Amino acid sequence: MRHYETTYILRPNLGEDQFTEIIDRTNAIITDDGGTIINLDRWGMKRLAYEIRKEVQGYYVYINYAAPAAAVDELERIFRIDDRVLRYLTIKLADSIDAEQIAREMELVAAEAAPEETEEEAGAAEETASTEEKTE
After folding, report:
1. Portion of the chain with pLDDT greater than 70, in percent
2. Which portions of the chain have biased composition (kind: Acidic residues) (predicted)?
3. Strand arrangement, sheet containing 85-94
4. Domain ranges, ordered by start, for the chain
5. I need a surface site. Which of 9, 37, 87, 123 has the fewest CB within 10 A?
């Protein structure tokens, strides 16, 4: 398997249900061929740098994954056919990736997300502690 990342832009007027449908279908293509999704990030609605198919905004989705080359070919074939996809870009990050490296990548993604949560929890804990001190 190879390590890839794909960013694609969907039409903004689709609605959350269709966004989810397209993302789920994309994930299914990757996992059905034996691939593994390392990180899926919905960047959401963003203004485009230039007009694409008469659209000035788009819904961005980023996916980091390990998959065989056939899965990427199928994914890009579907993107070319589907009018709801404005643009896509796939980048090969590494020629080969094993299960151990995939696990490390997933831990890294989880570690990056965890500090944000712990900072919020720490702020809430400090507020609670200062409130308790004031009441005593």
Report:
1. 84
2. 114-124
3. 36-52, 55-67, 2-10, 85-94
4. 2-97, 99-136
5. 123
Q: What number of H helices and E strands is found in the chain?
A: 3, 4
2-97 CATH choice from 3.30.70.60, 3.60.15.10, 2.40.37.10, 3.40.50.880: 3.30.70.60
Q: Tell me if 53 sits within 8 A of 2, measured CB to CB.
A: no
pLDDT given at position 121: 58
H-helix or E-strand spanning residue 54: none
- Rg of the chain over CA atoms, in angstroms? 19
Helix, strand or coil for residue 11?
Answer: coil
Q: Which of 44, 3, 4 is nearest to 20 (CA)?
A: 44
